[in-house]
Every structure is written in C-alpha cells, then in structure tokens.
Hints:
alpha/beta, Spore Coat Polysaccharide Biosynthesis Protein SpsA, Chain A, 20% strand
Amino acid sequence: MHKNQSECPLVSVVMCCYQAEKYVAESIQSILSQTYRHIEFIIWNDGSDDHTEEIIRYFTDERIHYFYHENTGVGKAADMACRHASGKYIARIDSDDIAEPERIAREVAYMERHPQCVLLSSAVTYIDEKGHSLARSYPYTWNYVLKRCLAQMDNPISHPACMFRSSSFRQVGYPHIRCLEDIAMYRRLSKMGKIHNLSEPLLKYRISASSLSHGLGRYAPLLLHAGCLVADSDPNEIRQNEALYNAIFSYVKQNKEKQDGGFYKDGFYRLSRHLSFLPSRWVSGFFILIHNIMGFLKYTFFV
C-alpha cells in the first residue's frame, strides 16, 4: 500500500466458525497475512464443542476480536457478528477457505473507486479437502446480469470472497435462517446500489461434503423459494417467515439425499484446459465475457 495505515479505510473481516478445527488455523493465517493491514478481524464461534476455540486463541494478533456464542445457525451468527463491525467495509470469509494475500487490498481499491457499488466479490479457485486445486470460476461481472440472477434467487456471488459497505449492511442485515442466508442478504443489498465480481481469483474456496448447502438435492428449489419469501418480507413479517424457513430446513436436513462430495467441472473449465497455451488473462477474459452474454440472454429472454 502507498498510503499510511491511518489514511486507509478500516475493513472488518468477519469469520463465523462452527466445528472448524480442521481448517480454521489456515484460514485465519490467510487474513493475518494480507498485504492490506488496516483491518479488524472478528471471529465468531457459533457454539463449537471441538478444538476450534483453542486453535483461535493460539493467535495473539491484536487485530483479532474473538466472540463465543451458543449455537444459533449461520444466518443469525453472521448477523450478530457483522453488527460488531467498526469498519467502512465488511469482508467475509469462511473458516475453511483461504484468502489470497492481495484480496482485501484489491477489493478495497475497487470499492473506493466505485462508491455506487454496495456489494463486491471475485472469481475463486476451487480446492478439495486436501487443498488441491480443482478448477476456477468464471463469474458474471455485469451489474445487470448479477441483479437479474439474484431476482431469480440464483447465487452469482461467492460469499467467502465478498465485501460490502457497512452502512448498507446495517439497513438490511442477514436473515436469521440456517441456510442460504447469503443469497437472501445479497437480494436485499442489490436493491441499494450496484454489485460486481472481480475476474481475478482472490480466494481458494474449499469444496467440502460437510457444507450446509451441499446435498440439498431436490429440496434446493423449495429452500430457494422460501429464501425469496424471507428476503422480500416486510419488517412486520420477517421473524414469522424466518421461523417458517427454519422449520422447512430442519425437515430437509433430516431427509436430504446423500451426495458423494464431488465437484462438477463445467464446460468453461473443460475447454480452458485445451487453451492452456494462451495467457491466462486472455482465457479468463474470454470465458467471463461469454458467460456474461449467456447470462444476459438467459435472464432477459428465457426466465
């Protein structure tokens, strides 16, 4: 960074943990090693009873603010944790993912240059449970396509790579639901300004069979529609609709289909392997452009 720390906006990095002992140390270290130093790091332990707390307390960096709370589920935990943020921006990360060293710096630079942007994320590199690279994403970057996507409760934003304005977040918050809380929050934010994805992978996103949203199978559309209801609720109905959503989720969790934990490598990934002789920025730029055009057509004419 070329500015003094005092001249840079404070970023509140928020991580929520539950039974996270396997990967949390690596994830924490990736934030503490960021080139952008002016951060506070809020780590929220959502009632873990494994060694998560012991591992977190091993880190003595003064930027860490640690909280423990009895288990409430991902939506309420995320909302409570982010309400403690003091920064101009809130950057999210999950307890099993790894931020690239320049992630915060690049996201802050974009947000500072684009004051109309309320929500930002990036492409990601997918890794398996052992940390081996599987693929990379080629996300939508056009504001129109991203908003049309969210209008259908499709998720075009990588949650652990996202950053949003604290002032905007305080007006919407995370819904207190136990799954897909990120999409519902994005839908609310998208009505307040522009959203964007950076085309460079700034996070290593771990594909895990233990992920809450993994294996929802045939129940995913039901939860997405329920999430839409929550996201669009007026203040007088929000808690009632959250309770309905969580009741549906409890049923789904008990009856979900078993999955093998595999990762589907889409057509862009398969084709890019055959174009490896080209500079990677050309390949990514080409596929992201094609993806945006396809998204524009899909959400304009076929939805």
